[in-house]
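Researcher: We're teaching a course module on how sequence relates to structure. For the next exercise, students receive a sequence and then see the predicted structure as tokens, so they can try to spot secondary structure elements on their own. Here is the exercise chain.
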Amino acid sequence: MTHFDIVRVDPSDRPLVQSWLEAQESVQEHDFQGLSPWHPLGALAALVVPDPDVRREKWAAVCDGEVLGYLNLHLGDRDNTHLAGFEAGVRPGSRRHGIGSALLRHAEDRAAEDGRTVVSTWLAVPHEESPDVRGDGGPFLIDNGYERSLEAAVRVCELATVDEDAEDRLWDECWAKAEGFELIAFHGVPPERVIDGMAYLHARMYTDMPLGDWDLQEGRITADTVRLWERQRRQRGQLNIQAVVVHKESGDVAGFTEIQVHGAEERHCWQGNTIVDPRFRGHRLGTILKIANQRRLQSMRPWMRYVWTGNAESNSQMIAINEAVGYRLAGHETVFQKKLGQNRLA
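Model: And here is the predicted structure for the students to work with:
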């Protein structure tokens, strides 16, 4: 067994940070080819920019100054305070030496010390639709007491291949069913007239989307929460492009969508939340929002090529919308979850 120590990543320790970044990059390149790319700037920004409502602990398994494995632990303080999330990985050349088990045990110990009763992680899994995904931590997690709690699919839209004529026809068809609604596009902090309604719908994302057996509970989100999120994104160099539909008669926010562009990334970006209030469904608003925001993305970032998104496999309605606006299946993810106190690692 390789000797190593698990230490907290200190942002001021430049050699440690560099090796920590290299370890993450090696895992991504070896295990998850063909999915959305990993960029070191995102990891660096998360290391030094505090989250307004989640404590993010960065840990490393270190041997002779080299990071062999990493653990990124998420402890929410605003809501879901029973839950701890994590990502962990071990350099391909350092596997099967007990490093992964030690990092997993450390995640569970830290979660228990913080009063958490459930731990979970999202993990891309090998599948025929993603033949270049080689990492398969699922059996390891199951052997250590985790259960498959939610099955999700990853899709990507290659913007240059979208049929613009077909999209124009779809746009007109949708607006024919959306009389009485107004579209508002912006980026950054939402306008005052819509920010409360958006906060309400952000909270609904926790309960409206299919969750399977994943123990995610109701969110506590206010307009101030949304403002804090945007402040954090700005500090991390991220751009949040958003579109909102408003019901004209009531003034209520009927739905919104987001696309997030990370710093130093000009080819790949990521779909954020998309939701339509149940009161206003049936008017093709989800499709309108997706098309409008993709077009705004292209006007603001003309060199952008790919938009990535993920959905629960049971979310057939949103999957149909995504495929209608140009998304194709690229891979699969699973949420693995464990209730602490059951089969704890010794």
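Model: If you want an answer key for the exercise: The chain has a mean pLDDT of 95. The first strand starts at residue 5 and ends at 8.
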